[in-house]
Amino acid sequence: MIMLIDLIAGARPNFMKIAPIIEALERARACGSSLRYRLIHTGQHYDRNMSESFFEQLGIPAPDVNLGVGSGSQAEQTAGIMTRYERVLLERVSDVCVVVGDVTSTMACAITARKCLVPVAHVEGGLRSGDWAMPEEINRIVTDSITNWFFTTSEFANKNLCRMGVDKKNIFFVGNTMIDTLFKNLMRFRKPQIWSDADLREKEYFVITLHRPNNVDGEKKLTALLDEIVRSARGCPIVFPVHPRTAKNLARLGFAPNGLHMIEPLGYLEFNYLVKHAWAVITDSGGITEETTVMGVPCMTLRDSTERRETISLGTNELVGTDPTMLRPYMERLFEGGWKKGAIPPLWDGKAAERIVGHLERLLGNPSDTKKGSESRAKKRTP
Ligand code: UD1
What we know:
The chain has 383 residues and is an alpha/beta fold. Helix content is 47%, strand content 14%. It has 18 helices and 13 strands. Helix 3 crosses helix 4 and helix 4 packs parallel to helix 5. The structure holds uridine-diphosphate-N-acetylglucosamine.
């Protein structure tokens, strides 16, 4: 019996996580698997350089459905995605909804699926920062509270889920699909234009990214952070691919200090080329701390918490905080050559997606696990 998987992607950090799952599903199908998928793009990110370029570079097929939700407040995006995804499910119900990460699209589709009696599998389930002021933390908690099957990236995540009372038989420690994509594309990374424009040299420049509302939405905070980064970089060039949220705020401020190269968001292959050859990365992203850990690049996280503790306990990441003055001692350590070397966390080996598809085959192939297939679920909903 054909089993239909809905694969949900909505925002930039989702695309590198779904790419290897799609490839693993295609490989399984070529070997006779009955798993099929429907790729659903919620449209949360819609700019070419926030979405389309990732599809092209990572060879992701065009979405089967685009919900086209676009920009809006958290509630507007959540409501828009739920309403539109529900229509898709009412037209044709799927056998499982696979969501990845912690963006608004993840939570909205998980809720919708469960209410339509579709089981939910959460790739990167179990992460917790403990910071309830972050929309992503709410998304993680809500999603995990209704998830059937958890595909996890770390022992920390497994422990968090056990603490929540999740039955161990529904937790599958598979590794990290974002790192699957990194390993697959390492040799394809390509020099961005800024390399020659700014005359960059290997390990002699910084890369920064900033997009968290509490870092970039306040003018004072944003300029204080950037001022401190420029000051403590001691004249080393800094490349700053600017997220649209941050760009809007910077445009208002007219802020452009010397040595800071502000550019448009980069494609996956160009961004990771820059990171791989950088001396260090300064960021408020979560995913980038995983990539720097695997590439052995020093990373300073401008946040007060992290949901990816293994990037600190094992990797090259340090949690600096959001007070700009806190950066100084870390930069000094870097300039003195005292940065830790780090190691790659367990199972971050490029095979996470293969493991996920293996588990899905077993879970969906066993009717007692899923309770019912899409046909019987559809019948149940029809009065
Ligand atoms: C979202 C995720 C965050 C992730 C980040 C990566 C949530 C809650 N947050 O935050 O976890 O790290 O993506 O980028 O889901 N915009 C554009 N073009 C686009 C997309 C957005 O101009 O293609 C603008 C929007 O109009 C909005 C701002 O960027 O003003 C923020 O976009 P939004 O999707 O709301 O959240 P992000 O800050 O990108």
